[in-house]
Amino acid sequence: MYSILKSVAVQILFLVAVAILCCQNIRAQDEVQCLGQDLNMTQEQKNVITDCLKEAKILSIWKVPMEKIACFGICILEKKNLLNDDGGLNHDKIYTYIMNVMKPDSVKKPIVDGVEKCMKDHGTKVRQPNDPNCITFTEVGQCVHEIFLAVEGFHHAKRAK
Question: Other CB atoms closer than 10 Å to residue 74's CB: what's the count?
Fold first, then answer.
């Protein structure tokens, strides 16, 4: 179980979380980019990251301890209102968020398609009432992380040609 949490730790996201790197008063605030392009995030959206880092007593997005990464991801999803009341991912809100925030435009469709596949393969439930370590998040979180790595790797390989 610890190895699953460890692998999720490289980046979040998601949903966002991979896409949403940092914010105000956090060292990585200036690194809110995808493939060298600034994400289209409002200060309010950036503040969500700051709030979740503070709640978890973490100073930097780059220093999220393995045991806190899943709950940190849940915090972001909750504060960005991307979850349904039952703890499931809200497909429409996540789709809209990706389309509004992600840059460059060429990454939007592969990320949306990948996130949809993750939700189909692993379910949309990421938060359970009696899950203090947020283990429910790990399968979808790992899948989304791999989608972001694949999209970034594809674009790096394309630029290298």
Answer: 22
| Structure-block tokens of residue 78 | 């909750």
Q: Cα(24)–Cα(40) distance, rounded to whole angstroms?
A: 15
Contact between residue 46 and residue 39 where contact means Cβ atoms under 8 Å apart: no
Strands 33-34 and 37-38: antiparallel
Mind spelling out the 3-state secondary structure of 12-66? CCCCCCCCCCCCCCCHHHHHCEECCEECCCCHHHHHHHHHHHHHCCCCCHHHCCH
pTM of the model: 0.71
Which tens digit of pLDDT belongs to each residue from 119-128?
999 888 899 9
Q: Using alpha carbons, select from 27, 13, 9 the residue that is nearest to residue 97.
A: 13
Where the chain has pLDDT below 50, the residues are 1-31, 155-161
For 88-100, the pLDDT digits (tens) are 999 999 999 999 9
- Helices (H) then strands (E): counts for the chain: 6, 2
Identify the sign of the CA torsion 37, 42, 46, 48.
negative
> Tokens 């991979």, residue?
18
Q: How far apart are CA 80 and CA 74, in angstroms?
A: 10
